[in-house]
Amino acid sequence: MSFDFRIRRSGFSRITPFFIVIPLWLLLASLAMSQEAEPIAVSSPTVAEQISQAVMDLDSSKFTRREQAVRDLWQIGLPAVQALEIVEGSGSTEVRVRAAGLLADFRIGLLPTTSRQDRELIHRFRNAASNVRTKMFPDLLASLPTPWIEELLTFELVPELRQRFLLQLTQDLQHLPRFTSPEAIVELVDRTNAAMPAGWKRNTISMLLFSPAVIIVPN
Q1: pLDDT tens per residue across span 66-96
Q2: Angle at 44 between CA 42 and CA 48, to 5 degrees
Q3: DSSP for 71-99?
Q4: What are the DSSP calls for the chain, one per residue?
Q5: Between these two residues, 42 and 58, which has the higher pLDDT value?
Q6: What pTM was computed for the model?
Q7: How high is the mean pLDDT of the chain?
Q8: Mean pLDDT over residues 135-148, rounded?
């Protein structure tokens, strides 16, 4: 018995390493095969890297690269806002102009998902002479959401015209439900008061509060 036991012990001690080596070999082989079967994907630039490169290209000596940079930043959309705000205040003249144009679109609500018709309408309005903007404003009221119109009015530099547009906005049947209380009128003027002269806010609030549309609508 002791002889047989020693043989089994001896055999076990010799066989054990064999059974340990085989699984390790199979494991290494399977890992190698899996790496060959699944090629490593080439890493693509992150959004941050795309923004950084596009912002630098805004100041490129090549016109085509500058134009492509604007298109790239437009397609990226809101994630590019922070970088654009930085170069809007510190870049070269052309970079500032291009950055300001993109930011103006984003702040109004113009994004890559915005319909082409709405984008063209807003761009025509922004770039038109004051008398043309006056004629176009009813089209904006009929086509655009209230927040877009409000943001668009912050770019209106003629104080009297901005007042007139606000009055039309608060009397338009489509947008009127947002402005049926004195508090809503004051908040509207606060949101659209940027770059206006002293006294404009007070006069505009008074004009809007005593407009017929606001007076006749019950709270």
Answers
A1: 999 999 999 998 999 999 999 998 888 999 9
A2: 155
A3: HHHHHH-GGGHHHHHHHHHHS-HHHHHHH
A4: -HHHHHHHHHHHHHHHHHHHHHHHHHHHHHHHHHHHHSPPPPPPPPHHHHHHHHHHHTT-SSHHHHHHHHHHHHHH-GGGHHHHHHHHHHS-HHHHHHHHHHHHHHHHT--TTS-HHHHHHHHHHHHS-HHHHHHHHHHHHHHS-HHHHHHHHTT---HHHHHHHHHHHHH-TTTGGGG-SHHHHHHHHHHT-TTPPTTHHHHHHHHHHTSHHHHHS--
A5: 58
A6: 0.64
A7: 80
A8: 94
Closest CA to 102 of 94, 110, 92: 110
Q: Percentage of the chain with pLDDT > 90? A: 56
